[in-house]
Amino acid sequence: MKTAIKSIIQHVVRRFGYKINKLEHASVDPFVVQKELTTADRPVIFDLGAHNGRITQKYRDLFPQSLIYCFEPFPKSFQALTKNMSGDDRTFCHNLALSDTNGLAVFNSNSSSLTNSLLSTDEQAVAMWGDEKEKFHTETQIRVPTKTLDSFCHENNIQQIDLLKMDVQGAEFAVLMGAMDLLKQRRISLVYTELILCPTYNGQHKLHEYLSFLDSCGYELLDFYNHTRNQHKLIQADVIFVRSP
Predict the structure, then answer these.
(1) Which residues, 6+ apart, have CB-to-CB distance to 178 below 8 Å?
(2) Residue 187, phi then psi, degrees to nearest 5
(3) What span, in angstroms and rounded, lies between the C-alpha atoms of 109 and 26?
(4) pTM for this structure?
(5) Please, which residues have CB within 8 angstroms of residue 27's CB and are 6 or more apart in sequence?
């Protein structure tokens, strides 16, 4: 089964001019892979969709000298994030969503805060996620500030992002569109993102759109990690993209 799935993924990515590279002796843990790929002594890390700071702390442990910028728009999650990262003067927490525009946007607060999104839940999510479908039920909507990654970096004089991590529940493509200048100028070294591959949120983009867009910006797919399946169907995976040589 693993061989068959691997062959299917290889076939799909080859259609868009990609190849899946392997690191010699690399771990299947995507965070270890990121550690192996990062050469900066004091990397700049952006954690988008930081939630309560669990992944932020993982980056802190892996990169003790890094500067970490966290973004979490949901107030309760942001409160937990700031509490968990208090005392860390190299981590900067921002209560906003990064997207493709500067302004305000409707934010959907769901039964599980892990599924909160700028995008509304697709009716097909019920069939796709089975026992987990209730996590996507929207309970309330709030308005949150949004900013593009290009604008944020310009305003804060950030010239380079070594690791861009995104877990923004289907809205990752909007983040990339708001980082057009950074990507075109190849000022982001590595993109680590969750990609939902089945209908879950209204307006989410398909895998081939990510592959095509990032290829046009000079980035290539490295590998897939942390696969989630519904029977034989791949419905979610984490992905690493790196700058092409």
Answers:
(1) 98, 99, 100, 101, 147, 148, 149, 150, 151
(2) -95, 10
(3) 37
(4) 0.88
(5) 33, 36
| Of the candidates 207, 234, 235, the residue with the CA atom closest to the CA atom of residue 125 | 235
- Helix residue spans in the chain (DSSP H): 2-15, 30-37, 54-62, 75-84, 125-129, 149-155, 172-177, 180-184, 207-216
Q: What is the DSSP string of 26-72?
A: --S-HHHHHHHH---SS-EEEEES-TTSHHHHHHHHH-TT-EEEEE-
Pair of tokens at residue 175? 């983040």
Q: Is the pLDDT of residue 26 over 50?
A: no
Count of alpha carbons within 13 angstroms of residue 38, beta-carbon side: 28
The answer to whether 92 and 70 have CB atoms below 8 angstroms apart is yes
**Domains recognised in the chain with CATH numbers:** 36-84+91-101+146-190 (3.40.50.150)
What tokens does 124 get? 């097909």
Give the pLDDT confidence of 187-225 residue by residue, as tens digits.
999 999 999 999 999 999 999 999 999 999 999 999 999
Alpha carbon distances (Å) from 64 to 24, 26, 89: 25, 21, 12
Enter the tokens of residue 209. Answer: 């759109």
Q: Classify strands 233-243 and 188-196 as parallel, antiparallel or unpaired.
A: antiparallel
